[in-house]
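Entry for the shared binder. Reason: the reviewer on the internal report wants the predicted structure included alongside the sequence.
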Amino acid sequence: MGKIIVTGTPGSGKSTVLSKIKSVEIISLADQMLKLSAQKGVTDRDRLRYMSYSDIAAMRREVIAKIINVVKTDAIVDTHLTVKKKTRYVPGFSKDDLDAFEDLKAIIYIDAHANDIMFRRLTDKTRAREEEPEEEIHEQRRVNIAIASYYASYMNIPLYIIKNRQGMVDEAVAAMEEAINEALGK
């Protein structure tokens, strides 16, 4: 039994890839946090990042504890490594959060070219995403990969980087399934 963190820069196609994965339970950290944030009046997923850092961290700890205590099967934890607001990057996990995952087997980062991410953000009418220039998307990708590398190194687990090229989602899904099976020893 194990958990895998799956993440990606917003617009990389993480949700699309994950929607096609049927081999393991998927738990969205943001969806779980949104349930808690409703008590504070925040009911829009894209507004979570505007909450205070202490509120975000407290909700994250509560959700992670629930995942650890309730989910006793192989599972993917769908989340972001960072949440960006202007020039601030809020880390997706603290050291204590990572330590709580005793059965963490891998981190999978869904990546895409910055221009693909820009296009997807502009055409995704289901989300209220901010327009950002390609240079900022490159920065977000670099920060996220650096943090993913640190987390994987700290936890002594593999980091998989899956390329989700425009129009090639099936290839990304196949690579994701292979990474899941390898990480979970299937």
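Summary line for the report: The chain has seven helices and seven strands.
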